[in-house]
Structure formats: structure tokens, C-alpha cells
Predict the 3D structure of the following.
Amino acid sequence: MRILIVDDDADLRHSLSLLLREGGHEPVAEGDPEQGLVRARDEAFDAVLCDVRMPRMDGLTFLRRYRDGGGQALMIMMSAYGAEDAALHAMREGAYDYLPKPFRADEVLLTLRKAEERERLRREVAELRASLGADAVRDLVVAESRAMRQLLDLASRVAGHNTTVLVTGESGTGKEVLARAIHRMSPRSEAGFTAINCAAIPETLLESELFGHAKGAFTGATADRAGLFELADGGTLLLDEIAELSTGLQAKLLRVLEEGEIRRLGGRDGKRVDVRVVAATAKPLERAVEQGEFREDLYYRLNVVRLHLPPLRERPEDVSALLTHFVRQIAQRMGHPVSITPRALVRLTGHGWPGNVRELRNAVERAAVLNSSGRLDLEDFPLDGLVPGAMLRQVEPAALAGAWNGNGNGNGGGGHHGNGNGNGHGHASAGFELKTQVEALERATIERALEATKGSRRDAAQLLGVSLRTLFYKLRRYQLD
């Protein structure tokens, strides 16, 4: 292990360095705690051995400043007689262990051996969590497109670290869902996930909601009350619509992020909190910074890692997967089968969905609630911008039936959602997958659109009710270009 020794006693630094070197470690020693803190931040160490009582900076202050700066090495405090209480306090603040002075050589090496074993196990757990993360997150985030798969891969790698994350994207793209997925993949997953919409609470109440208040802080404050930062201690806090924070609250949030300490409204004493913050916004924060509406220093503090959720219109290949996901969810909730006809699937996949995933989910739920049969068709989705009915009538007589029978599992073009066994429930079976049906119908519809427009891709895109970019993507996907 590479170990930093921080102690103002030159003789102890020398003897401890010899001991560690003989034990197979790589020691580095500093007598000045300020210089030791600089090295601890700038260089990679597996552990830090730090004295509790030192001039200019005590060990507890060193620990706090090191952790606040993002330091991850294991901290082992060294305490002389009478300083055990301070060492124990440091352990409550996050130190791994402490060594009472004077200590024997075997005590030091045993403590480091235990620390090394713990660090090895921690790395193994982190690696296992990361390997499982991408699969686990699919329970929350449905993704078929390349852009979303790359985003989820980045999210799974970020989740294991304590860094602040900024999630951006249009309204309805699933920013809170992604934040929950990050929490689920993180080492904090067993602690709580808390979310607050900063735009939904009046500014006069938001400070108390975030940081809590002391009794008598304002009219009606009849007792002390913990805020969301305290309630989320050890877990993750999502600050949605972060752009709506007032400049005063922005300054207080920045202080919490930098110092890891909150102060209740009307309170005198600070309280340390360990919270992983995920911020989300549908507004471009860069523009807000340029216009003086958002603090530049807070922007950079939040924007350590940015995850941008593209709108649904830019990833149409996700629509059919989302439809299948929502239909399955709704069927389980309602307690009876729910299915979507093939022609409705084609239309819904070609829709622009300006409200993104939220609009898609609400459309499916509305259709399922109003249609008691559980078989959802075009008339159950009164949306603007779907593929024109004339185009569908062109496709239905031949291409639709042909695509339906192309799997070798259809029933002759009658639009039945069964598997040839006459159950009529629309359940997929082997060789009769919903995704395969949708792709076959999409291809047939695009071919007829190109035929109707004499090969004009721009006119075909307009006829299909999709963007030219989406059509080009589909042409490449189905090898029609």
C-alpha cells in the first residue's frame, strides 16, 4: 500500500517509515499538516496515518478537509494518551481506525493488513456492482437506442462514485427515473432516495424544506424540524428543476456542497451531512449563467458529470420497447391482458411525442382505462401527427397482412394477437415476438410510402409523419437505402 504519514514528530515519522517499508509498503512522510493535505489531495494514497494533535491543524480538521476535497484513502488516526476521545470522534466522522501511542510494530502492521483487506473487498463489491449495474438499471430505464445504451453505461460507471451529477433533458424524458437508477446502482442504494421539485415549492418555504428550521424561526415554527438534507443523510437527494432556485438559496446550496454542512433556518449550529446530490433541469443552465440568473460557481460544482437524456423524437427505436413495457405494467396493474394492434403500433412508433416518455405512458394508460376489451387500436389514441389514415389503408390489404404472416406464426392477416392457439390474449410466444412484428410492419409501411412518393424520401417522411432524420435511420436499419 502507498501510505502517507502526517505527524509533527520527526522521530516517529522516521521510525514509522522504516517499519512500513520493511512491511512491504511505500511510505511518504510529511511533518506539516498543510503540506500533507496538499499531497493527500494531489497524489494517490491507499491510506493516511494522521496524528490527532498537531500545531496549525489538528487531525480532525485534516480529516474533514481531506474528505470535503474528495479524498477517498482510508484514514487511520494516531493518538497519544489523553487524545482517545478525539480519535473516536474522528472515527465517527469517517476515519477507519485509530492507533494509540505508543504502539507496537505488530499493531501497526495488523491494522494496515485489516485496512488492506477491507479495501480489497470494497473494490470487489464496486466491480461487482458495476458489472450488474447496467442490467439492474434496465428494470427502471427502458433503452433500445444506441444513445440511451451509452447513457446508461456512463450512468452505471458514475454511480459508484460520490460525485455530483447534473441530469439534463426536456420535460418528460425521465430525469427522475435516471436519478433513481443511479441511486440504485450506487453504494448508497440501501439508504433513502429523496426528491424535491424546486419549482413546486414557494421560495419562502423552500429553504426550510431543504435545510430544516429551528423552533421559533418564523411564525408557526413551533418545534425543530429536519430538512431534506438531514433526512437524506447517507443517501441520495434529487434537486429537480434546479434552475428555479433563487440566488440566495443557490449560495446556501453551494456552501452545503463544498463544506458538507447544513444550518437550519433560525439555527445557530451547523450539522454535517453525507448526501449525494443529483441535480436535474429542463432549462439550459449555461444560458442562465450568462444572463446572471444562476451562479457560475454553483453551475461548475453541479456539472461535474452531465447526463443528457435525448428527447423521444430523436430515438424512435425506443418507442416500441417503451410501449411493450407500459402495456405489461398496465396489464399487471389491471389484472387482465392488454395488447396493442399491429397497425396502432406502427402509428405510435411514428409519432413525434412532444411530451416524451411521460406523454407516451399517459397515452397508453388512458387508452387502457377507456377500452374495456384490453385490445388497443388506433381510435384509442387520439394524437396529432400520426401516420395518415390513407397511408394505412394502402398498407393494410397487402403489406400489413404479408408482414403479419412473414413470421410464419400469423393467422392469415386477421389482426389476431394470438399465437395460433386461439387464446386471443395477445401474449407473445416463441417466434411471435412483439418487437419482430413491429419491425416487419415498419419496413412494409416505409416501402409503401417510398413507392407512393416515387422514391422521394422527403415526401415519404412527410407522408409517414416522421422527421427526415428518423426516416434515414429506419432506411439504414432495414437496409432500404
Q: What stands out?
A: The longest helix spans residues 105-137.
